[in-house]
């Protein structure tokens, strides 16, 4: 058996060095995105003609969880979320099939919808790199797009490279408005001429005797001069060169987004930077990917002749590596503390050696199964390993202590190892199997949180299985080999410790004798304990125990969103952001600042918006958490006039820092929803604790609507489509064709010069070519101002406004949700309108519900296992009575330390079900053995409980000390999650240990006396 386990040890050690590193488990959520472009269309048109039709088509697909859509200018985006467990490929295929059925129902000018799976990893880059170079900006962007990006994308763990900022090259054909009018030019026709002049068409195969040749027509532009030399028919039958009518410019696309970089570490400040966001593959190793990217950057610089400079702004490697290292350090410290406890209780170095050898068998062997199951080294799996270490400690301690007890009675080491192990087989097996019963249901929790818990649960189960094997094989084998034949307590400290332990046993026995003198004293102890339990529940009722989804894990980052009034252009926005950057850079904790002008998120875009991403120094070098810095920064930026500025701390658990409070206000009329939203937000402002309250809807920017006079359009031989294309060419420009240069393609855009449309009257006078000459746009259409919404959001086919809010420190998520629910109850919703939870808030509700279900299932499974092992229906109920005893300590320590009831805390509570029952199992199992030998219940309790006092104290103190590094927050990264679990576990173990020593004998004595009266033969067998 030892050699068999050694095989696992060897392959487990090899697996450890190949397991990928990540902060959290990879979460694969079945999301499908459907994107449809309809150039030039307003949000309301997008909604009615595209979005609704796509929603109706896909709503009949099975396993749908939620449909969310965004209708923006020129774009429809539909997000389809399926229930966990739905195969992504099947979901994608079903969505595509449904959309193919409605293609003919979509507008003629709309592009074909594109359906694709959502990779949740694509939201957070693993590395951010800036690109600089002493060359024209357009050339630098070309290098970024075609050289740097391609080179980085070849790295094994890199999935894609996103380019942010920079100037993208474009060929612009710009016309003067007066020349267009005088020459009766039609811009849409110019577009067609360019398309027809820039072609490369294969002619087929040309055969001649003995040879076959391919033929093609090569008519693509090879220079700008060829574009200038194109013939254009103008009014009166005259032909002119395009170069005589327009300016052909080799320039860049219109800038609507811009990136600023301020790197204090490297003393770099770039106002129009190119930023490379490197995204890892779904199953990639984040840490290795970062290292490979950093190693590749000097090579790329050298390949480009050192004309460019690539600088790493931020990466996830250090934080993830530190989190993993800290968790492993906690495990190692736990093992060391366990050895110290064994040395203290058994005062024998060889016992410490046994544990030091036996525990790695269980831990290292687990890595092999983790590799087979595809489980990475992440915070959750390593916390599971740390938890399993406590189980192994408990099992090994019980076995070792019992072996020592037999040696003290005069048995040799081989007999002691055999008899000591066999006597506690039932107790150890029962405690280990209860742990498996507790953790296995966690692997089946639904939702994103459930997927994150899978690694925790499976790792714990795997390690627990190995711990059972080790406890029954390696531990007794080593004990039979290394322990002395007889225990000699020659050292004074050994004699003193043994006398102290015996004193503890005598005191404990004396207290039990007093309690077990009468049944009513036992009843009093039980009622007193129940009273303490009831008082602990009042801590929840009166708000001393707060709830949230997960503790804010300080990821060393902040996010700032800035929104200016409609009408601000990108230059005015940049001026405001300079002031923001200046104030933020004064913070000593700030390492670098990346500002993106013109875009906050994929659905929130506009030249009046900006997002600022701030990288902070590592937590160990800061006196303040990122939440406290965010609060102070909010106050510091509050006096910037005209700007709506929101600062939030980015949690490593929530990626970019999603708001903890998020809910939907839904109905059919956006104006009514706006009124309800305004009322809601006003009431939220009255509640202390809500900050940075935001809503998804934005007032639409002033819009110019052109309403054609169809009669006049028809009389002149035109069409509404031609009129619309003329306007688009004049305002935005139309991409006519592509210009190839150096093997790369660039857009050729036809438009009017920038100074042609400066006023409202300029727009009305845009020339429209007819057979009778040019006429102004105002002749064919009414041009008027209007306003609307620049974004229409729908959730489950209802128009929706999403309201979100961040929270001040000390205002927990659970209290905030209660406050919002009270506001909803006081709001008079019209028929057809409602409020529903979304985002992290809904996830928290689902998590609490799932955890409660798992908690109940764990108790049921534990009862079934105990009933099977103990062959009793009553004693398992008694053993499970230790769970409420643990909750007393859990609620108490949460209230005292200010910890919240979150995902980690609830995980620890479920974990305690499998830990705290061990104390009762030890007492009752030994008591059952004595009763089978004919000992009465009272004497059996007075014998079994004191004898098991030492192993109970040893195993529980060892488990507490094993979790102490987590509880005190040892480490620099990811401390918050581990600390919550450690504190709750210690609180539950301490209270259950102390109370179990008295409550379990009391209840057993009460029940035992009843059984003795009714069935004395079974209580006192012959």
Helical coverage, percent range: 40-55%
What is the structural class?
alpha+beta
Q: Which word captures the global form?
A: elongated
Q: What Rg is obtained from the alpha carbons, in whole angstroms?
A: 36 Å
Which regions contain 5 or more consecutive residues with pLDDT less than 50? 1009-1022
Give the structure's gist in a few sentences:
The chain is of the alpha+beta class and 1022 residues long. It is built from 34 helices and 31 strands.
What keyword list fits this structure?
31 strands; six-stranded antiparallel sheet; 1022 residues; 21% strand; disordered C terminus; alpha+beta
What does it look like?
By secondary structure, this protein is α+β, with helices and mostly antiparallel strands. Helices cover 53% and strands 21% of the residues. The strands form eight sheets. Strands 1, 2, 3, 4, 21, 22, 29, 30 and 31 form a nine-stranded antiparallel beta sheet that branches. α11 packs antiparallel against α12, α18 (519-541) runs parallel beside α29 (882-897) and α29 (882-897) runs antiparallel to α30 (903-932). The longest helix is centred in the last third of the chain and has 40 residues, at 975-1014. The chain is elongated, with a radius of gyration of 36 Å. The protein starts with a helix and ends with a helix. Residues 1009-1022 have low confidence and may be disordered.
Any chance you could write out the topology, listing elements then pairs?
Layout: H1 2-16, E1 31-37, H2 43-58, E2 64-72, E3 75-82, H3 88-100, E4 114-117, E5 127-133, H4 137-153, E6 158-165, E7 169-175, H5 177-182, H6 187-197, E8 199-208, E9 211-219, H7 224-228, E10 231-233, E11 239-241, H8 242-245, E12 246-252, E13 258-263, E14 268-270, E15 274-280, H9 286-303, E16 308-315, H10 317-346, H11 349-373, H12 379-408, H13 413-423, H14 425-439, H15 447-472, H16 474-482, H17 492-515, H18 519-541, E17 554-563, H19 570-585, E18 590-599, E19 605-616, H20 626-637, E20 644-651, E21 661-667, H21 670-685, E22 690-695, E23 703-708, H22 710-715, H23 720-731, E24 734-741, E25 744-752, H24 760-764, E26 767-770, E27 773-776, H25 777-780, E28 781-786, E29 791-795, E30 798-807, H26 813-826, E31 834-837, H27 839-870, H28 875-880, H29 882-897, H30 903-932, H31 937-947, H32 949-967, H33 975-1014, H34 1016-1019
Parallel strand pairs: 7-25
Antiparallel strand pairs: 1-3, 1-4, 2-3, 2-29, 5-15, 5-16, 6-15, 7-12, 8-9, 10-11, 13-14, 13-18, 17-19, 17-20, 18-19, 21-30, 21-31, 22-30, 23-28, 24-25, 26-27, 29-30
